[in-house]
Design goal:
- One of its GO terms (cellular component) is cytosol.
- The chain is built from twelve helices and 14 strands.
- It has a single domain, classed as TIM Barrel.
- Helix 3 runs parallel beside helix 6 and helix 7 runs parallel beside helix 8.
- The strands form four sheets. The chain has an eight-stranded parallel beta barrel. The chain has a two-stranded antiparallel ribbon with strand order 1-2.
- By secondary structure, it is of the alpha/beta class.
């Protein structure tokens, strides 16, 4: 039986256990998208988790949705991320930078160019967006032209190459949580009538073209992909979790020999079993509502190879040690999730610091 403390090879990495840090937006980058020194400290503090998947990082100006999220497409971005990667490596961890294009989940006030957001179709998500002036309704996005789709594919290619230049061990493509790829997957957000809309094959085409370009650029063993079947975020509605689409996507991604597939899933295990059977490489499973005592259950039941964790990692930089020793966890400070500065970011004490 598999155990959470067994080692595992993922792409070109050898991990000492079956835990990983899930990507989580922390909204602390500089205005130009550079991650700061606190970001380097934040990730270095959590290096014992082995594989650290960074916060969502835009591959271009058009990819940004929220205030103070980082980018990875300029020389300044690369230099700043190199500081993060170096400090993670010095503490014996691995860093994957998550590439996140938010699509329609944006507001012009939050971007440097203040343009209309790009999306598969000109359909607003009917939700609000926090801006420097408070909450505002997200406006109708611009339906992407074929040229804009082609340009976006090349932006992902460039961002992936930039991440490797910055010293990252790989990248994860964010195909989940109501953002651009998820918008292409969902019928209620994608009403195109060309080769990127309608059939399942067409709705996953953009994702496969991006992954193919990135694999060509940096190698398959440095690429992961994240999905969230049935997740109702950003106005996305997926009937019956769009199951047929995700199984088709999984099988198509198999042919590209990626390092891993990362699934966010809180629903019935029967569909997770189907994904598990279809996927031939390493499978990361993130269960947002998972109880601490169940953290290794998916691995023991062969539903996952790795359990990715989120908020426990935020509040406990030494989560691995605490889990091994059965020590109580720090409480999460919800007021510090996106507040900026040290509070709720780099000020959580380790066991050694408490002593």
């Amino acid at each position: 039986m598999k155990n959470i403390w067994d080692s595992i090879n993922v792409g070109h990495m050898k991990l000492n256990h079956r835990l990983a840090m899930a990507p989580m937006t922390r909204s602390r980058a500089h205005a130009d998208g550079r991650p700061g020194d606190l970001a380097a400290l934040y990730y270095a503090q959590r290096a014992s988790l082995g594989l650290l998947i960074s916060e969502g990082t835009q591959p271009s100006d058009d990819g940004q949705g929220y205030l103070t999220t980082p980018g990875i497409y300029t020389e300044d971005h690369i230099k700043a991320w190199k500081n993060v990667a170096d400090q993670v490596h010095e503490n014996n961890g691995y860093l994957y930078i998550q590439l996140m294009h938010v699509g329609r989940m944006s507001h012009p006030d939050n971007t440097s160019h203040h343009r209309q957001a790009l999306a598969p179709s000109a359909i607003a998500p009917q939700v609000g967006m926090f801006t420097a002036e408070g909450m505002k309704d997200i406006p109708i996005p611009k339906e992407m032209t074929i040229k804009e789709i082609e340009r976006t594919i090349q932006e992902f290619r460039h961002a992936a190459a930039s991440a490797i230049r910055a010293g990252a061990d790989g990248i994860e493509i964010h195909g989940a949580s109501g953002y651009l790829f998820h918008q292409f997957f969902a019928n209620n957000a994608n009403q195109r009538t060309d080769q990127y809309g309608g059939t399942i094959e067409n709705r996953v085409r953009f994702a496969l073209e991006v992954v193919t370009a990135v694999v060509e650029e940096i190698g398959a063993d440095r690429v992961g992909f994240r999905i969230s079947p049935g997740m109702a975020l950003g106005g996305i509605v997926e009937e019956d979790a769009n199951k047929e689409l995700y199984l088709y996507l999984t099988n198509q991604l198999n042919a590209l020999n990626l390092a891993y597939l990362h699934i966010v899933y809180n629903q019935n295990d029967e569909f997770l079993k189907e994904v598990r059977q279809a996927w031939k490489s390493v499978l990361l499973v993130n269960r947002p509502d998972r109880a601490l005592e169940d953290i290794g259950t998916d691995i023991e039941n062969d539903l996952a190879d790795i359990a990715s964790i989120g908020r426990w990692a935020i509040a406990n930089p030494d989560f691995v040690e605490r889990l091994k020793t059965g020590t109580d966890l720090n409480e999460l400070n919800p007021n510090g999730l996106y507040a900026g500065g040290r509070e709720g970011y780099t000020d959580y004490p380790t066991l050694k610091e408490k002593k």
